[in-house]
Write a structure and sequence with these properties.
With 131 residues, the protein is an alpha+beta fold. The protein has three helices and four strands; from the N terminus they run ββααββα. It has helices at residues 36-43, 68-76, 117-129, and strands at residues 8-12, 27-30, 92-95, 98-100. A four-stranded antiparallel sheet has the order 2-1-3-4, with no helix packed on it. A hairpin with a 2-residue loop joins strand 3 and strand 4 (98-100). The longest helix has 13 residues, at 117-129. It is globular, with a radius of gyration of 17 Å.
Length: 131
């Protein structure tokens, strides 16, 4: 867990706002290109999780957002940063391994759109039926 401490400056694990469940992917911005190979080798193909799962991690470049400034610009005024969104659902910035405050929004942030549980269930059932 501490193998990469101080080597990343942004981590974001998107969640479904209606359930709080992770969407199964994450964004990690490394603070220097020299750290990429080691992280890639450690995570790509990993299937050892603290809970039982068949999931295998695949590492890829974020497109079109690369670099800390690009990620800050992407999320700074995003609904995910709305005050009503739990802090653990928001992108997190780090400096020297310590979490730091995200830059404040530069405009009014709209609350995120949350699918109702019923709508989500109908959509999930339709997706299963189409398989």
């Amino acid at each position: 867990e501490k193998l990469f401490l101080g080597q990343f400056d942004l981590v974001y694990l998107p969640v479904d706002f209606s359930t709080g469940t992770g969407l199964g992917y994450a964004f990690v911005n490394l603070s220097a290109p020299v750290f990429v190979q080691r992280l890639w080798e450690a995570f790509d193909g990993n299937s050892e999780w603290p809970v039982e799962s068949d999931k295998v991690c695949t590492v890829s470049w974020s497109d079109p957002h690369q670099g800390l400034a690009s990620h800050i610009e992407r999320y700074q005024n995003s609904p995910v940063m709305h005050p009503e969104v739990p802090d653990e659902w928001k992108p997190a910035l780090f400096m020297h391994g310590m979490r730091v405050d995200f830059p404040p929004a530069t405009k009014k942030i709209k609350a995120p759109k949350v699918r109702s549980k019923k709508a989500a269930d109908v959509q999930d059932e339709a997706a299963r039926d189409s398989q």
